[in-house]
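Expect sequence, tokenised fold; for instance:
***
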Amino acid sequence: KSGFVLIDKETYLPIEKGKIDNRELEQFMLETEYEHLVLEMVASYGMAVGKSVFDTCVAVGRYSMIKRHVPYSLVYRMQVKMHLVGKTAVKDAQITQLLVNRFLTNEEIDRWGDYGKGTLKDKGMFHGFNNDIYQAYAVGVTWLDITNKGELDFEEITDKNKKEKRKKKWS
């Protein structure tokens, strides 16, 4: 299963979100229009990794190829932590709280609770979010922040970019 969030690039509001089976997510991606795909990429930082990490690598590869005409970017967890918090020694709960504090007013937090979820009758901005969805949202927010400021430092990987890089090498 994978967490995902479709984000409005202007308002940063979540349009659609969920944690669904990888095959279902692939189908969702095929049926949904989006301008750019942002994927969290794994890194081991010298530590031993297990099967789930390799499964994630396979999933990232599959997702990146679903719509070949749509550009995609890979964002590493450390980039998210450094961008949002300014340090790498950060737990998921801290990132979640930072997102809630950033996007909700004090009144909304009082109304919808510490995680901004609200209730079935009074849904908050983060209604239906779980840890994986919050972290997927953090990846998207990080990418949007940096690209909206014109400070693109994430390597965009598209066939077009690869061809342009090859041309520059030989020019």
Notes: Residues 152-171 have pLDDT under 50 and may be disordered. The longest helix spans residues 131-148. The beta strands are 2-7, 14-20, 37-41, 72-76, 156-157. The CA atoms of residues 101 and 109 lie 8 Å apart.
